[in-house]
Fold this sequence. Notes:
Layout: H1 7-24, H2 42-50, H3 54-59, H4 65-70
Helix pairs in contact: 1-2
Amino acid sequence: MTSNVGMIDRVARIVVGLLLIAYAIPIWFAPSGWNWVGWIGIVPLLTGIVGVCPLYGLLGLSTCPARRASG
């Protein structure tokens, strides 16, 4: 698979993913009935690490400069 996630997008995804996962673990945040929502952070974390977003691929989008330049 070719990378379709640019560097700024990757960093933002990793930060958001880590923050969401931190919310899911009630060590740093107060436990509530909604802490499970934080586990959604696995998706942006993995797409940020791998550099490929399946949704971008389906929609034909890319934030990767090399991908946009070639077409």
